[in-house]
Amino acid sequence: xxxxxxxxxxxxxxxxxxxxxxxxxxxxxxxxxxxxxxxxxxxxxxxxxxxxxxxxxxxxxxxxxxxxxxxxxxxxxxxxxxxxxxxxxxxxxxxxxxxxxxxxxxxxxxxxxxxxxxxxxxxxxxxxxxxxxxxxxxxxxxxxxxxxxxxxxxxxxxxxxxxxxxxxxxxxxxxxxxxxxxxxxxxxxxxxxxxxxxxxxxxxxxxxxxxxxxxxxxxxxxxxxxxxxxxxxxxxxxxxxxxxxxxxxxxxxxxxxxxxxxxxxxxxxxxxxxxxxxxxxxxxx
Amino acid sequence: xxxxxxxxxxxxxxxxxxxxxxxxxxxxxxxxxxxxxxxxxxxxxxxxxxxxxxxxxxxxxxxxxxxxxxxxxxxxxxxxxxxxxxxxxxxxxxxxxxxxxxxxxxxxxxxxxxxxxxxxxxxxxxxxxxxxxxxxxxxxxxxxxxxxxxxxxxxxxxxxxxxxxxxxxxxxxxxxxxxxxxxxxxxxxxxxxxxxxxxxxxxxxxxxxxxxxxxxxxxxxxxxxxxxxxxxxxxxxxxxxxxxxxxxxxxxxxxxxxxxxxxxxxxxxxxxxxxxxxxxxxxxx
Amino acid sequence: xxxxxxxxxxxxxxxxxxxxxxxxxxxxxxxxxxxxxxxxxxxxxxxxxxxxxxxxxxxxxxxxxxxxxxxxxxxxxxxxxxxxxxxxxxxxxxxxxxxxxxxxxxxxxxxxxxxxxxxxxxxxxxxxxxxxxxxxxxxxxxxxxxxxxxxxxxxxxxxxxxxxxxxxxxxxxxxxxxxxxxxxxxxxxxxxxxxxxxxxxxxxxxxxxxxxxxxxxxxxxxxxxxxxxxxxxxxxxxxxxxxxxxxxxxxxxxxxxxxxxxxxxxxxxxxxxxxxxxxxxxxxx
Amino acid sequence: xxxxxxxxxxxxxxxxxxxxxxxxxxxxxxxxxxxxxxxxxxxxxxxxxxxxxxxxxxxxxxxxxxxxxxxxxxxxxxxxxxxxxxxxxxxxxxxxxxxxxxxxxxxxxxxxxxxxxxxxxxxxxxxxxxxxxxxxxxxxxxxxxxxxxxxxxxxxxxxxxxxxxxxxxxxxxxxxxxxxxxxxxxxxxxxxxxxxxxxxxxxxxxxxxxxxxxxxxxxxxxxxxxxxxxxxxxxxxxxxxxxxxxxxxxxxxxxxxxxxxxxxxxxxxxxxxxxxxxxxxxxxx
Lengths: 285, 285, 285, 285
Description:
The structure is a homotetramer of 285-residue chains.
Chain A: E1 6-13, H1 18-28, E2 32-41, E3 46-54, H2 62-72, E4 79-84, E5 89-95, H3 100-110, E6 116-123, H4 129-134, E7 139-141, H5 149-162, E8 167-170, H6 179-184, E9 189-193, H7 205-212, E10 216-223, E11 233-240, H8 247-270, E12 274-277, E13 280-283
């Protein structure tokens, strides 16, 4: 028994009896449900279910549970994951030159208020070494030399694997991943885009926002896909601005929003709350 | 069969197997769960469960279901309600002289976007007769004569019963109900208070807000209890203001917030989303 | 003397002494400044100034003031307007079939909390006649017959002129004005777009928002230009939504935002707070 | 000439000609007004004016300006300050054991996006020494020994003076200052209170919020006065929460709000935007 409660996250094609089958299975083993949230998406025709339960008996055997549960639920065609809430999602953070998202993420991590375990920081620049090392984290400088982006990306992916990474957080990494990397990291890489998507895709969104004269600016955290800025949105937020804000001041306000939004997306992912289908997400809170 | 889906809302002391018992009962009768949300409150030690399901077979017999389900669940000590989503909660609205909350509620009702059926409007003033009657609603003027508040309140409660009222919405009614009325209407009367409680209890909250120089003003919808302004909060919202707003302008902004907040609380109540215990609520969305 | 205070709104190329010249002119005539807000836009290189003042002497002669002030300020190349705050901007409202924006605008107007004077409602449909007439307003049904949009638009513009219209409010009018009409109504027509621009331009934005899975939806009020959905933004707001909202529910939430945003834009325009240059606005609050 | 622009912040009893006198004075010396904002508070009967101007001539002599300007404006009874925008307000930060506000403030300071110059960090605990020293700042541990709070406070005030402190930021300092210290630091000390005042005054506001079941939590930055939690509010913000948040999770969300709100208040103070009268503020933005 490695912890006191578990989160079971599953989805399957809609069918009568899914919730009953799963909850009866748990009740039959004495497990107590602490939280349950089920949503049937009418477009996808899929049931999504998130359950937090406390195992009912000392000596809960996770491996046995997984084998048996998998067997029992075979008829439903479920995709499912089980996570011990006492464990933490292993994260590698990729950054470029800016510190705000990294700093905020590491602060929340070191305060113990994000259920993640940061393993390392990687970057194409040296700027954030000092911050990473101050937090006792290994920092890997992976410069893009002579435009050889793919080679550098391979190094990053190798490091991610070596560290046992479960989630790659692009905390303003500013490099576009290749389609191959996007596939390898499917639903395991979260990016923060510094605009309220779908407005202001592409580069320099705060300057775009200034040009367009918008009255609110925002940020969007999404899973990385090879369709840039079209990845499934996990979280967004905005803040009010006005004509008197320069692009630099918009950037300062925006940086605050980015940090908050990225932290929320990482937290919800790590708490097994996010279901992705197509370019949408369901976040069961 | 009176509709295509039902909402089952229940709470009971925490115990292993509650969710399994309820969902297995439904699955056994072929019902398909569309939404499910369960929350175990650690303070109250109670499970709260809201289920939306589609009956699996034509000719669903609601009375039989209620009798049988009640019997099956007896060991759990459940409090539960079943509502056909095609039916609408029968509402009586009480107002005083101001129109904004009434107008907004009636607009949403007539647009069909609130699952309520407004039966009548009552008021201690004549001002809103024209608006009520324009919407084809009976309007009852129940003046408070010679300070005889209790007699007038009894008239209002009698009307509420006569109309088969399920929910009394105090849309800026501005009169304090007696403890006896509060008990009779327990969890069946929603009030809108024109401040962000617990700030600015009591009279003239926008003037209080002006005096205090707050930078946000708000509104709070809550169940009516005999502890004034301490009723269980269902919903709250705020809007940004600044020093340049006069009390009158704060009132105008505040009126907009009140309308939105009251409509949300009424909607969530009517959708069987709100659980009350003590002076708190759980709103399962 | 037609009122107790005036708002002077002016802009001119940046030059030393603009504010001093204007405020000294006023002080020299005994006028007391109640509010002043000046902004120098660094891109446009223009000064924008909004002043509220109380004339210092009984028998303030507005015509004389206008003649004299215009003469004095000639060297600055100013564009300026003077408005008696006791007067109200004359508004014609254009609607299509939906009521929410019209209802909210007329409610605020009849409550006296918008400094406008609604003269008439025009529509290409009959639906809102009852609401307009309940408020004692003339309603003009201008159907688009046999696709003859231009003829119908000419009728609408003729009515606007006949009513002495100063501002045309497109409160979900749903028809695109011709470039000629846009030019005639430059800075005198405000539209509400039912999305947070620049996201979701074009038709059915709430359905687009649903498809894209955004976590906030919004609305944008802007001056009408012949570059559709690219007009200068006056105000925007958003509200939080999630995966469980159907397109219909997004629409309901969105309608509330639209009403609030449109009212704010109309209010700020009517209070002479909005300066437009290019496709941006400065709103001096 | 020590910079390219200056901010002049002044208030005086309402009188015709204040704005004209000040702006004419500037124009007469060739200064160009970049921003101007004037507000006449109807309750206090005072004019408040904030002007940003670029001196018109090379070799702007600040001392001469101050002497001459003071003399010229004597009849108006003005209180005024002049600040070179290139200079930065000298700040001492007081903290207790928690890091979030300190970290966020130092991050913004080191990024150059707050117009402050942090001189030192003082604390009654050792916890934040490492963070302060990482930023190259002196850290002074001033423990409260044997309940001798006044002696410790005197040490802190002496340090504040020695560092040439202009603003003391209580970034979750958690100690109540004596009335004498409050007077000495009048309008020069900003505190962050971890609730949306006037709700939840006093200790453990997030636990109070949990007990009360509020649906939004907030934070308030205010000038320190000897009437605890009643100081003039500079800025406030809130975030949405629900029943599922534990007091610890409310605290985590609240900490984010506190950081943002405190930074904004410090920025506006440092930009000479805040006017205090009685227990209210005017923030000219």
